[in-house]
């Protein structure tokens, strides 16, 4: 936490993740890769990062290669659609040209590409053969990352690339034939890996999921630190759940058996009931947040 005041970072929308990154958010001027299986929460995290960046009067661009951007859900996550540049490229050439144009203009602070797994080379539209052309996108992405690394630092722009990856089923590539598949792993300054670990249910009804984020690669903090986030369906990140978990971790909230207590307030048994009490009491949420921030300042 010693360099937290020296790193220009954008909050991630998650208090737990900002605490784990030791910089108050995701630093600018770097390439960040967010990988994980389908429905692990990658797009939700990106939308919260965009919302936090817009609160700081930054300009953001969302390059949707999946064609799956839900504007209603994005608004629930706090995204201001009037100040968001949303693009839908047809092929990988258009997507990379858009990123290069945004970097050269130095007018965009956050660029999100969701996802690079859906990039299709222009040759696939023109070819009538059935052979695999994925190596063309790999080579193109490798060349782009080498050329744009210094441009990203000079523009002080945060570039986030999401990548679909099934953690449970490792894929072994022929690196001698396709060495460019590792380009993003090498050029990314920060690599976050997400996966769903549990469901959140209230009265036998599933209302959300718990996703775990692992810091696989970072040049600022020790790696393999994990945080668990609550993602509520149709609402996004549940910040009250993070306040509860961080308060319990920092001993701001005391646990006695299955009962939780904050100062003289009995929060009830069970995690979900305690979080509901925080949501129903704005004063309690504000007091908890202030005590947590004071404790973090002491630890810094």
Task: Describe the protein's topology.
Elements: E1 9-10, H1 15-21, E2 26-27, E3 31-36, H2 42-55, E4 60-64, H3 71-76, E5 84-87, H4 92-105, E6 110-114, H5 122-126, H6 134-155, E7 158-164, H7 183-187, E8 190-202, E9 205-218, E10 226-232, E11 236-237, H8 239-249, E12 254-256, E13 259-262, E14 265-269, H9 271-280, H10 282-299
Parallel strand pairs: 3-7, 3-8, 4-5, 4-6, 6-7
Antiparallel strand pairs: 1-2, 8-9, 9-10, 10-11, 12-13, 13-14
Task: Offer a concise description of the structure.
The chain is of the alpha/beta class and 300 residues long.
Q: What do these coordinates show?
A:
There is one protein chain. With 300 residues, the protein is of the alpha/beta class. The chain folds into two domains: 9-237, P-loop containing nucleotide triphosphate hydrolases (Rossmann fold), CATH 3.40.50; 239-300, Rec A Protein, domain 2 (2-Layer Sandwich). Helix content is 37%, strand content 26%. The chain contains ten helices and 14 strands. Strands 5-4-6-7-3-8-9-10-11 form a nine-stranded mixed beta sheet, with helices on both faces. A three-stranded antiparallel beta sheet has the order 12-13-14, with helices on one face. It has a two-stranded antiparallel sheet with strand order 1-2. Helix 4 packs parallel to helix 6 and helix 8 packs across helix 10. It is elongated, with a radius of gyration of 21 Å. The chain starts with 8 loop residues before the first strand and ends with a helix.
């Amino acid at each position: 936490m010693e360099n937290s005041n020296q790193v220009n970072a954008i909050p991630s929308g998650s208090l737990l993740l900002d605490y784990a990154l030791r910089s108050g958010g995701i630093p600018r001027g770097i390439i960040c890769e967010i990988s994980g299986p389908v429905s692990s929460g990658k797009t939700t995290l990106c939308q919260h990062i965009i919302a936090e960046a817009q609160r700081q009067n930054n300009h953001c661009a969302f390059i949707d290669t999946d064609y799956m951007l839900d504007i209603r859900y994005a608004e629930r996550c706090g995204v201001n659609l009037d100040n968001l540049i949303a693009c839908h490229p047809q092929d990988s050439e258009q997507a990379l040209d858009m990123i290069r144009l945004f970097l050269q203009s130095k007018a965009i602070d956050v660029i999100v590409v969701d996802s690079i797994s859906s990039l299709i080379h222009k040759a696939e539209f023109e070819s009538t053969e059935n052979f695999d052309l994925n190596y063309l996108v790999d080579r193109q992405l490798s060349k782009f990352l080498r050329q744009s690394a210094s441009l990203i630092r000079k523009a002080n722009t945060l570039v986030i690339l999401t990548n679909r990856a099934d953690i449970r089923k490792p894929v072994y590539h022929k690196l001698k034939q396709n060495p460019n598949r590792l380009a993003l792993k090498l050029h990314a300054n920060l690599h976050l890996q997400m996966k769903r670990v549990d469901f959140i249910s209230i009265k036998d009804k599933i209302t959300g999921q718990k996703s775990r984020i692992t810091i696989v690669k970072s040049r600022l903090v020790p790696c393999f630190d994990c945080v668990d986030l609550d993602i509520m369906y149709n609402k996004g990140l549940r910040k009250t759940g993070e306040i509860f978990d961080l308060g319990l971790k920092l001993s701001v909230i005391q646990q006695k058996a299955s009962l939780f207590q904050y100062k003289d307030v009995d929060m009830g048994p069970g995690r979900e009931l305690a979080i509901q009490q925080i949501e129903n009491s704005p004063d309690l949420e504000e007091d908890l947040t202030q005590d947590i921030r004071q404790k973090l300042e002491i630890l810094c």
